[in-house]
Amino acid sequence: MREVGKLRAGLIGLGMMGRHHARVLQETEGVELVAVADAYGDPHGVAGGLPFYSGVEELIAHGVDMVMCAVPTGLHEEVGLALAEAGIHTMVEKPIASTIEGGQRLADAFESRGLVGAVGHIERYNPALQSLRARLRKGDLGEVYQIATRRQGPFPSRIADVGVIKDLGTHDIDLTAWLAASEYESVSARTTTRSGREHEDMLAANGQLANGIITSHLVNWLSPMKERMTVVTGERGSFMADTLTADLTFFENGTISTEWDSVANFRGVSEGNVTRLAIAKREPLKVEHEAFRDAVLAARGETRDELAPGTAGIVTMREGLNTLRVAEAMTVSSREARTIRLRD
User: Fold this and answer.
1) Taking the CA atoms of the chain, what radius of gyration do you get in angstroms?
2) Gfo/Idh/MocA-like oxidoreductase N-terminal domain spans which residues (predicted)?
3) Which end of the chain has fewer CB atoms < 10 Å from its terminal CB, N or C?
4) How many CB atoms lie within 10 A of CB 312?
5) What φ, ψ does residue 190 adopt, rounded to 5°?
6) Judging by beta carbons within 10 Å of its beta carbon (0-12, 13-18, 19+), is residue 95 exposed, middle or buried?
7) Do 143 and 249 fall into the same domain?
8) What span, in angstroms and rounded, lies between the C-alpha atoms of 242 and 146?
9) How much is the pTM?
C-alpha cells in the first residue's frame, strides 16, 4: 500500500443530477474534478473554469482515473463501454442500463478488466436506511416478515426515456433486497399510464424474496403528495424510514396486557412505545461518492492515511443488473397479468 495524491475525476452528463455530482465531486476529499462533458451543453453552468467537452472520447483523452456517468439511461451502455475499454473506473447513475442485455455487457466489461464498476443507487446511502440496515443485522427486529415501500410524487420533467418502474421503482427494488440481504424470488405487478406519455407512470407490485420476506411497492408520478417511505415489519415491531427527512422511527410491539375482552381476544400484537431514533445525517450523495473513491483506491492498491475507509461500500454493476432484472420482470408481469418467477 502506498500513499497517493488526489484521484483525477471526470463527469459526463450535466443535467439535473449532473450538477449535484459536480458539486459533490468538488467537495470530496482525495478527489479532484478535472473535466466535464455533455453533448447537449452545460445548462446549469457546471463547468465553471473546468475544461468542457462534448463527448466521452474527449473526456478520456483529457486523462482521468475515474468518471461519474450521469447521461440519460439509454446512453449508459455506449458511454460505459467506452470508459471500460479505456480502463477507467466508472459509476453510472441508476438504472445500470435501459435493457438487461446492455446491463450484462456493462457488468462483464468492467469485471473482466478488474475495474470498479458502480451504479448510483443513492437510497442505500440515506442515513435512515443505513441505520435501519445495521439494526436489522443486529437482530433488533427479530425475524423480518415484510418490507413495504411507498414512493410517490409529481411527474419530473427531467425523465423522458424510461417509465416509473426503471426510474423510481429501481430505488425500492435495490433497497429492499439490500435491507433483507436476499434477492427477489417472484413479483406480481400492475401498472397504468395516465399522463399521456409512452411509459407507465404508476406501479403497484408485490413480491417475495428468496428468504421468505414478502414485499409491497407503491410507486407513481401522479400524486401531488411527495412520499418516500420504507416500513419493515417483524416479530418485535416495525421500523419506518422516511428518506425525505432521513428520520427513522421504531414502533414497538406492546407488552401491556389489556382487560378489554374484545381486544384481548385478538391473537396478534398490540401497540407499544414509539421511538424516533437519533441518527447522524450526512448527505447521501457525499457518502456515495466517498464509497466510490475508496473502492477505486482499493482497486489501485493505494491509500491515504487521512481518509477513513468507507463503510457503505459501492453498489456493484452485478447488483445493478439484478435490480434491472426485477424491474423488467415487473413490466412483464403487468403486461401479461401474471406472477413472474426470477429464481427456479
Assistant:
1) 21
2) 8-121
3) C
4) 16
5) -135, 140
6) buried
7) yes
8) 17
9) 0.91
Q: Which residue bears the cell 413490466? A: 331
Which residues does 243 contact at the CB level (< 8 Å), separation at least 6? Answer: 123, 126, 128, 129, 228, 229, 230
Whether residue 153 sits in one domain with residue 93: no
Contacts of 93 (CB under 8 A, 6+ apart): 13, 17, 69, 70, 71, 73, 76, 119, 120
Phi-psi region at 209: left, alpha or beta (left = phi > 0; alpha = psi -120 to 50): beta
**Alpha-carbon span 264 to 47, nearest angstrom:** 65
Q: Per residue of the chain (344 residues), give pLDDT as tens.
A: 444 579 999 999 999 899 999 999 999 999 999 999 999 999 989 899 999 999 999 999 999 999 999 999 999 999 999 999 999 999 999 999 999 999 999 999 999 999 999 999 999 999 999 999 999 999 999 999 999 999 999 987 665 678 999 999 999 999 999 999 999 999 999 999 988 888 899 999 999 999 999 999 999 999 999 999 999 999 999 999 999 999 999 999 986 655 666 555 555 677 889 999 999 999 999 999 999 999 999 999 986 544 444 446 999 999 999 999 999 999 999 999 999 999 76
Rounded-to-integer distance, Cα 298 and Cα 304, Å: 10
Which candidate, 174, 162, 261, places its Cα nearest to that of 221?
Answer: 162
One domain, residues 130 and 260? yes
> Per the structure block, which three cell numbers stand in for 315?
453498489
Cβ(124)–Cβ(175) below 8 Å: yes
How many other CB atoms are found less than 10 A from the CB of residue 157?
A: 7
The residue type at 22: A
